[in-house]
């Protein structure tokens, strides 16, 4: 490659991997097609560097596209190099990381290039759930390559230089002002992007993520050394229940919390924590968001939304594929009632139900607030297969708010009767004690004991084995 090419594609790899660990594969490969004067254009490495290296001594396979070679477009040999990388990764059981900077399909190669795209899609589809796949959009990622990003487990995006789109913004009917290819749109609205930042921030985040994930679906996630007290009390966690990003940091070893899709459906929090050195996936309902100074920046209704359910279902499916234990913090009072949400909430809620019910990885649920109606059932309830269910002593579990229930049951009665029956309903049907007496909660705990109890539960579940009915896959 030229020195310019080396400074873009190759140096990205150098910035990502452990020093001097990268070994290139297929350096001498160039374009095979000769149509439309391609022989007059030099295509060193056919516009993509492929090879393997280490992240914190963990084996990873990496490809890095170079926009200075025919715009980084994907042609026959370009895709073959990436597909061969996938063959290595599948045999060795190691993650694949793509550093994307590509103008799309190579027009000069026509059906050869289209077939190459299809072969790449198939490799990525077959690798899904077998090895982690990470994409970093550092430049253009348009057209068919956006589908490849969608096939990845995690997508990082340069907040300034990154452009991610299936159809370019100016090709969308009626769109005159919105940049649908920018990082904000792709992270907040489509949910395709998990993390946004500068290239240096992206490389640091990828390294942190790789250090938390299993190399493949047969390995366990890397164990971390634990300096944190396993019996540490989370003294301030009750006040942080509204924002799980804060609460989960308090529960986790050393305050580690790697949030996934933080910008999308903020009322549902997903991410990874560490408990006794083990990686645990976390799913939680959010009713408020706070900044680093403790100032509230947003408020959310304690309800399930379509986007939130889809986000959580996808995350639970990933955790289950790699046997990563799942912890839920439940604080939900049913579904958001508005027309826009109604378009998709039935199907989205069904997807979350299926994800929890089908997951055979260890599952622990902690009810930290109100767990009413379907919100209680859908959020990893015992009925859906939660192995252990805890509830804070301040939590409430039932069909709905006691006063609303009394108003329905005793419609037309005076206020005194409604209040009397509401108090009775609260005690008999909505209290955490009532739910525990029926066996729907295993243990009522103090909020400050959450870390200790969660660690103990996952340790007990370490050797969990569960067989589900034989099938190819669910259809939801």
TrEMBL record:
Gene3D superfamilies xref list: 2-enoyl-CoA Hydratase, Chain A, domain 1 (3.90.226.10)
Keyword entries, A-Z: Transferase
Pfam families associated with the record: Carboxyl_trans
Record's keyword annotation contains Magnesium: no
Residues in CoA carboxyltransferase N-terminal domain copies: 1-157
CoA carboxyltransferase C-terminal domain segment(s): 222-474
InterPro entries: AccD/PCCB, AcCoA_carboxyl_beta, ClpP/crotonase-like_dom_sf, COA_CT_C, COA_CT_N
Keyword Transferase attached: yes
Membrane-spanning residues: none
Gene Ontology molecular function: propionyl-CoA carboxylase activity; transferase activity
Superkingdom of source: Bacteria
Xref: PANTHER family: PROPIONYL-COA CARBOXYLASE BETA CHAIN, PROPIONYL-COA CARBOXYLASE BETA CHAIN, MITOCHONDRIAL
Protein name as it appears in the record: Carboxyl transferase
Organism whose genome encodes this protein: Porcincola intestinalis
